Amino acid sequence: MAAKNFGHAFFCAFITLIISYPIIGFNLEAQGIDVTLTGADTTTIVLVLLAALVVFLFQLFRDQIMGALKRVPMPSSDANKEPMAENKRAKIESWILTGIVVFALFWPFFVSRGSVDLATLVLIYIMLALGLNVVVGLAGLLDLGYVAFYAVGAYTFALLSQYLGISFWLALPIGALLAALFGLVLGFPVLRLRGDYLAIVTLGFGEIIRILLNNWTTLTGGPNGIGGIPDPTLFGMEFGRRIKEEGNTSFHETFGIAYSGEHKVIFLYLISLVLAVFTALVIRRFMRMPVGRAWEALREDEIASRSLGLSRTAVKLSAFTIGAFFAGFAGTVFASKQGFISPESFVFLESAIILAIVVLGGMGSQIGVVLAAIAVTILPELAREFSEYRMLIFGAAMVLMMVWRPQGLMPMRRIHIELEKQE
Amino acid sequence: MLEVENLSMRFGGLLAVDQVSLDVQEHEIVSIIGPNGAGKTTVFNCMSGFYKPTGGKIRFEGKEVQGKPDFKISRMGMVRTFQHVRLFGQMTVVENLLVAQHRHLNTNLISGLLKTPDYREREQKSLDRAAYWLDRVGLLSMANREAGNLAYGQQRRLEIARCMVTEPKLLMLDEPAAGLNPAETKELNQLIVSLKEDYNVSVVLIEHDMSLVMDISDRINVINQGRPLASGTPDEIRQNDDVIKAYLGEA
């Protein structure tokens, strides 16, 4: 039994050794202007050897281990569960969702400022992921430069407020529409491309926007970014200690309460919450509308869709534009939350993370995407001690997900439609 | 209503279709038969706009359509099925039919978001039409199943239903009986005849099942190696020596 795996196990252990030793074992140390290579201390070497041993033993007894694992009952097996009636399930689902939103409305008043700040970031990622979900999950267009539209939204607000003094509420639709316009203009030439080619072009577009922001120093300030972006106001009430703009009143004075920095954080959180719920609801409607069905049809079979009279360009453009629109939304909120933006915030890694959220959550599934956005944003914060290994853990999680739940946390479920029999 | 005149299609050095002509009158079933590789599907692809023909003219209801984009041709009322079933496998059966009615729906985003009366009314109408056709092809009980999980014969019927909800004037069927058992072929036979009789749709049919072709066709065009070989009524074709030699075989 074990003997036949011996060669394979030995090989795997050897590979572990030759990969991990140079990476972990050697250190480059700077001494003055010279760099010297030093070996690792004993503990590291012991650890590397131990890791190799673990790999060796696992591969040697792999059949037995995997066999034992199979006997452990899977927690998520719903094979023997009675499927719930369709309308009953939908009702329960909508109750739970309403409950969560109500809870989210009151939650910030009882927790620390840091948590609320983090939650705002989560909500921004939810908006982004829901938007990208339209493009990737529903329409099946792999977009690796999604962050570009996010940047357009953020910079629109930053520039408008800097040069024209436009407020958050006016900048919100302008930023979103401008991002949508970018989506439309970019979409026209590239949407005839398919799959991998489209991914590369969108990747390039994302970089172009970032490099443009970096180098157009006269307008965007280049790598220095833009600061002093105003906070949103509530019907002309500002949340700062002192009023910055004439004609505005301040929130704490109007209501006669003591000034607290938390007000602003909570207000931003609530705005993001409302916008995220708005995004989710609008996209949910889209999914049930002709345009949503057209996105999916085109993803499933382009030739059949065309033979039924769907215009490929129009359908793809609509998905691209709507996705970009919500990215612009999220960008405006982000700029307002940070108060300062620079091209640093819009690197390719952001696109990759948003895409990872969509894939982890389950392509096309809104609840799955929301859950994944929460997980991907919060986990790194909780595990700050491991921050060096963040990307490693992230990668491992992706691999495990693909093995166990290739369709994502919550695979998309089809909406059932009641039909009445014709007389 | 459809006239194809000296249609030619050249792929590099290969002349796949050479000077093929055919015409379809209203209320008529016209078949295209011929050996494998004769260019039948290529003719279909040219007619439905998937290929841009290198020569010849295609007129549909008096308008020239050769070289028009496929989705525009389909919107004019010329809809086709495929040799290999092409359904939207992950969507439900009824969704497949709703996608096809894109043209009849209110696709305005704003009115969809606000659920305007016009939007609801059209949505309901297309649901009714979908239900009607599902009932017609015997798939009503399957309406909420994923289309990819249907049996092969059911998928074939769904594909025809999906064409019919677009309310076409001319239906192009590419080997609709391929892979069906004799009983299913018989049902198909009745369905196609009823499409013509009850819904006033003209049909162009590519098929290898000779009993089906001979039974329902009003006229038959035979193509061999891209060139037209013969055309006429089923009886004329059955007696044509060239056709027997090239395709039907001597009994």
Can you describe what's shown?
The complex is a heterodimer of chains A (423) and B (251). Chain A is mainly alpha-helical and 423 residues long. Chain A has two domains: 2-70, no CATH class; 90-404, ABC transporter involved in vitamin B12 uptake, BtuC. Chain A has helices at residues 2-25, 42-60, 62-71, 86-106, 113-138, 147-164, 168-190, 195-215, 217-220, 251-254, 262-288, 290-300, 302-307, 312-338, 348-361, 366-382, 390-404, and strands spanning 27-31, 34-38, 237-238, 249-250. In chain A, helix 6 packs across helix 7 and helix 6 crosses helix 14 (312-338). The N and C termini of chain A lie far apart (67 Å). In chain A, 37% of the residues are buried. The mean pLDDT of chain A is 84. Chain B has helices at 40-47, 70-76, 93-100, 109-114, 117-136, 152-164, 182-199, 210-216, 234-239, 241-248, and strands at 2-11, 14-24, 29-33, 55-60, 63-64, 78-80, 170-174, 202-206, 219-224, 227-232. In chain B, helix 3 (93-100) packs parallel to helix 6 (152-164). In chain B, strand 4 and strand 5 form a beta hairpin. Chain B starts with a strand and ends with a helix. The mean pLDDT of chain B is 89. The longest helix of chain B has 20 residues, at 117-136. Chain B contains ten helices and ten strands. Chain B is α/β, with parallel strands linked by helices. At the A-B interface, helix 11, helix 12 and helix 13 of A face helix 2, helix 3, helix 4 and helix 5 of B.
Number of helices, where a helix is a run of at least 4 consecutive DSSP H or I residues of chain A: 17
Distance separating the two termini of chain B: 36 Å
Instruction: Give the largest interface.
Output: A-B, 31 and 45 residues
SSE series of chain B: EEEHEEHEHHHHEHEHEEHH
